[in-house]
Amino acid sequence: MKKYKFLLIVFSLFLAAGLEAYSFSVSPGISILSSKYFDNGRVLTLGTSLSKKYAGFSPGADFSLIQADGAYREDLSLNIFLLKAGLSRHLFNLTPRNKLSFSFSYGLSQLRVKTKNGSESSFVSWVIPAIKLKFDLTESLGLFSDLSYGYSLDNSNSSLILLSLGLQLSR
Amino acid sequence: MKNLFIILAISFFLTQCSSESPLSRLSQEYFPLPDTSSYWNYKDTLGNSASVSVESFNFLYQGRYCSVWDFNGTYFYVWKDDGSIKTHKNLTRDFAGTSYVVENRWADFLKLPLLEGDLWTDVYTNNINIAGDPYSIEIKTTVSVRLLENFTCPEGSYENCYRIDINRNIRESSALLGNQNSSEYKSYVLAPSKGIVFFSDSTGEYYLSELELI
């Protein structure tokens, strides 16, 4: 429980910080959940980040909508509304316009599994490390790809991989 | 600062609500198929006993490598893949000293994953000619699933169980026999990693008292 409270405080601090956003991004992609019952799914992420740095780390917050269909049942589907907040750090420049960064986030999701007649839902917490490769198209517009790995903090040992490609607009 | 407190309160509330998630139930094995010599023993409220034992684990039957269980005196052929658990249905009818197979198939016993409120219906029909007389049968099976937060039986107490109610209605019609309707009702409670911890049928209600899964 102490771990949860700590993560909640971190999550809340950086979500609040994210309200003064420096950049906005939108990125569609694919999702893979470590469950045999679901096919690969889709993800759409809306993100914000701050220009302020704390010891080289920038806070940011994302909202992702994840959907997946059943692998064996046509009426089975999965919806995850994932809100995550965390810190990102610039690692190095591959080229003058290509930047590689790493982030570590805490996510809180509302997860719903449903069929035609049945459904179950609950809140699930995640820890999400990610790597992001950004290419600056102009001074304020960038193209990026993001690879995130989520590990659920319930007792299911579930993993979630998100691979997305998007645009980032900086103020 | 106000926003911070609101977000903190909402986050705390939401996390407090998260007990057992569907993800953790999806990762559980609710219908284990253990090896030969495994067994489940049951008792009803009057002390009568029933048992289920695994007779064979990899038995070729009707085109499938399946498990064969002695389910309280009746052979139960069960086969499982990632999306369902199937049992073999073999129903015969006797006419004038001759036995006719009117149902012979692998049918869904459970659709996976198990989910609270899930409900499905399977309809099977067959038309055959018996001694020159057209005979038809329609078997309508309705299966419903409910999530039980906990279930207690003599063997122990289990959380996150599913109750499965199965209603099988059979309608038969032929010129020789006329129309016949019959139905049978069974229910099961499945616990994670244990399998069937309770079942009820026309003979009574049986609670798990002992098990050994190999």
Task: Report on this structure.
The complex is a heterodimer of chains A (171) and B (214). Chain A has 171 residues and is mainly β. Chain A has one helix at residues 2-17, and strands at 23-33, 41-49, 57-69, 77-95, 98-114, 119-136, 141-152, 159-170. Helices cover 9% and strands 65% of the residues of chain A. Chain A is globular and about 50 Å long. In chain A, 43% of the residues are buried. Chain B has one domain. Chain B has helices spanning 2-17, 22-26, and strands at residues 39-43, 49-61, 64-71, 74-80, 84-95, 98-111, 119-130, 133-153, 156-174, 178-191, 195-201, 204-212. Classes of the chains: A mainly beta (171), B mainly beta (214). The A-B interface holds A 4-5, 8-9, 11-13, 15-16, 19, 35-37, 71-73, 76, 108, 110-115, 117-125, 152, 154-158 and B 3-4, 7-8, 11-12, 14-15, 17-27, 81-84, 111-113, 115-120, 145, 147.
Short description:
Chain A contains one helix and eight strands; from the N terminus they run αββββββββ.
Q: Which helices and strands appear, and what pairs or packs with what?
A:
The complex is a heterodimer of chains A (171) and B (214).
Chain A: H1 2-17, E1 23-33, E2 41-49, E3 57-69, E4 77-95, E5 98-114, E6 119-136, E7 141-152, E8 159-170
Antiparallel strand pairs in A: 1-2, 1-8, 2-3, 3-4, 4-5, 5-6, 6-7, 7-8
Chain B: H1 2-17, H2 22-26, E1 39-43, E2 49-61, E3 64-71, E4 74-80, E5 84-95, E6 98-111, E7 119-130, E8 133-153, E9 156-174, E10 178-191, E11 195-201, E12 204-212
